[in-house]
Every structure is written in C-alpha cells, then in structure tokens.
Amino acid sequence: MDKKNIKLVATDLDGTFLKNDRSISAGNLEALHKLGEQGVIRVAATGRNLKKVEEVIAPDVPFDYIVFSSGAGVYQWSDKKHLFNLNITPASTKRLVRHFIQKEYNFYAFATAPQNHNLWFRRGKEECPEFNKYLSFHNAQAKAFQQNGELDEGLCQFLLIIPEDENNFEALKQEVEAQCSEIRVIRSSSPVTEGYIWLEVFHKDVSKGHGVNHICNILGIQPEQTCGIGNDYNDLDLLNFTAHSFLTENAPANIKNRFIIIPSNEKDAFAHAVQPLFK
C-alpha cells in the first residue's frame, strides 16, 4: 500500500474498529490521530444508525465522516452536519409491509434517515428469541404496528431476523427483492446472538461503498486513493469499492479468501491495517 497515495481510510465499527466490549483500543485511537496528522480522511462506515454510533463513539474521537445505516446516510462528524440520506419510497414500503404481514414474518421497520432510530415492529407466527432480545434494546423508540399494518410514509429500512441457514437466507432474499425493483437485501451476521442472520432491506442504491464514494466525490478523492477495513458480509460493498481492502481474522470463513486478512478486532485490526501509512 503506497502511503503517498492514500487519501481516505474507511472502517467498519463493530467487529472491526471496536473491541468486542464496544471500546476503542489505545492502538486504534492513536492510529486514528496519526492519520489525521497526515491529512488522511477518516470514515466510520457502519450498519449502526447515527444515534447508535453516538453510543460508542465519543464526540472527541477524530473521525471526519460517518457513513451510517449501511450507507443510508452520510454525516460530517466534525461539523455535525447531515450531507446525504436515501430512503425507500412510501409505495414500496407499503407493499413490503403488506407482504411481511401476509407471510406472518417477525420484522422491524425503521423511520426515514436520519431519524431511523425510531422504529415499528410486528411479531409473526414463529417465536424468535433474537427478535425479542433486539426489541428489549429498543423499547424506548419502538412502536407496534396497528392491526392493518398500514404506513403512509417512506422508511429507511426493514429488518428480518432468521436462524442461520444459507438456503433459507437465499430463498428469502429472492422473495423479498421480487416484491419491488427499488430495494435490495443486505446480509449481516447478528451482533446480538450467534447463529442468526439479519436480513436488512434498503433502497437499492444504499451501500457502505456508495456512501464512501459520496464523500470521495465531495472531496475530489479517487477510488484508487482509498483503503477499507471490515469484518462481515455487510462490509463487502465497502471493500469492493476501496482500492486497498482488508478483512479481520474474525470474519466469516467463507469470505476470507476475497481480501487481505489482518488480526482480529481484539488485536488492533485497524491500527495494523493502516500501519504502513506511517512508515
């Protein structure tokens, strides 16, 4: 990696930049400061909504931008300024809500970004402990759907939680994406309980890679001047966009052959990836 060429570094948070207890290691924080001293743009690209980002990233942690909710929004961290949001239209959200209710799925629906920490929920016919656990973390912002489930507004995203099963995921992904051409499904491993897949539904143009590209376009940075670091399926769009891309050792085994492997998030993965920029 040519240190003179890198102008932007983007990292996932959970399982990558953050330790398992959601803390920031001294090594990673030092590396973040060093990048700033060298004029490198520092981006956190995360599946967390902005409110959830603020729970783990203190205001003085020197990121320049936050790509939140997997790319549904871009936020200038230093100036506290929203730059970009992309949501699903009311027509598509209505169609998807009706489909999920008809199928009796457990699902969540999130308000439009940047207010997408607010959400609705609907329990289906299958009991899902992971669904209930997630709800317990969001009781203050969550509302149950009315009986008919009608919504007359757009949404940022949907979330369906299923037991880990590759065939079931692929079938459900195809089923959901067939409902309307405006959306796409992004897969994520559950950060709450092992053994579950999160099936997240966004506007088709939402991705961490697109979010970082939006920042690059603003600043005049070329894709070949970027570095990306991630650990999971929902980081693949980011890592496919950045020219120099790394996966942590704690990534799922079946995607490890796609990018350079670095130590786990418990062993300063971020600092390890950007270390060549300081030599």
UniProtKB/TrEMBL annotation:
GO terms for cellular component: cytosol. It comes from the Bacteria. Coiled coil: none annotated. InterPro entries: HAD-like_sf, HAD-SF_hydro_IIB, HAD_sf. GO terms for molecular function: magnesium ion binding; phosphatase activity. NCBIfam families: HAD-SF-IIB. This is Uncharacterized protein.
